[in-house]
Amino acid sequence: MLELSGPPVAEAVYQELQVQLSKLPYVPHLRVVRLGEDPASVSYVRLKDRQAKKLGLSSQVDVFPESTPQDELLAHIARLNADLEVDGILVQSPVPKQVDFNTVLEAISPLKDVDGLTPTNAGRLWMGLEALESCTPAGVMRILKHYQIPLAGKEVVIVGRSNLVGKPLAALMLRENATVTLAHSRTRDLPDVCRRADVLVAAVGKVGLITRDMVRPGAVVVDVGINRVGQNEKGRDILVGDVAPDVSEVASALTPVPGGVGPMTVAMLLHNTVKAAIRRRGSPLGGG
After folding, report:
1. Which segments of the chain belong to CATH 3.40.50.10860?
2. 101 near 73, Cβ under 8 Å?
3. Which CATH architecture best describes the domain 135-257?
4. Which stretch of DSSP H or E encloses residue 10?
5. CATH 3.40.50.720 occupies which residues in the chain?
6. What is the structure's pLDDT at 286?
7. Which residues are known catalytic residues?
8. Confidence band, pLDDT 50/70/90 cuts, at residue 285
9. At 282, is the secondary structure helix, strand, or coil?
10. Binding residue per annotation — 161?
11. Nearest Cα to 143, choosing from 6, 11, 241?
12. What is the pLDDT of residues 77-128, one digit of tens each?
């Protein structure tokens, strides 16, 4: 079985970005907004900020109290939209209950939407137009391309219909001429649907959702799920995906958790930041 490891693919993305950055007369700037002190969000934002600076981007994290009113957050986003030095804006989810995340997304300028989640970018993606693509789905596609997994004419089943992963990934798969089924909790006979797949993607956030008997022998399996199931003796989170371990006995290729899709999400965020900067500010090579 081929392990579809994420770090080598992420490293290839970073090398490409370093070449682009070396030719720009400016430094792209990423601004991440975090509300509250949710441990997972704190950890994830720290990772994004650290990797951005390691790559050579300018990065800043704006931290607000969990009690911040929605209007105050929207006013901050409006300032970031107007700031000519800010190329990318990301509001870390989940947000507190008094904040409607869809309203927040609609407030972000599509030109600076490096998460690829605004209605404008999501709509452009489905129309096959140029867009800032949602980071995790873009990362999945980059992994499949890196390991030369063919998609044209293949049967792809995506389990999970979220705006974050399932829906944009379906659009990206269609763009590569795959035949796509978007399955979910109401899908009848889910095991039968999954067994049709040449490429099976699990993106629900449920431990062990995809079992060995749901995978056709020789299928490619992409595990997008990241589930925390406890901590090890060093106090670090133990992460598992949505795919049961014994699926590796029947799949021809499988992304590990951790070390699969996860690293690609951050890589594609930084890819989007550089892309957004070039589109807005221009490139000496004529790319903007």
Report:
1. 25-115+261-288
2. no
3. 3-Layer(aba) Sandwich (3.40)
4. helix 6-22
5. 135-257
6. 52
7. 48, 92, 115
8. low
9. coil
10. yes
11. 6
12. 999 999 999 999 999 999 999 999 999 999 999 999 999 999 999 999 999 9
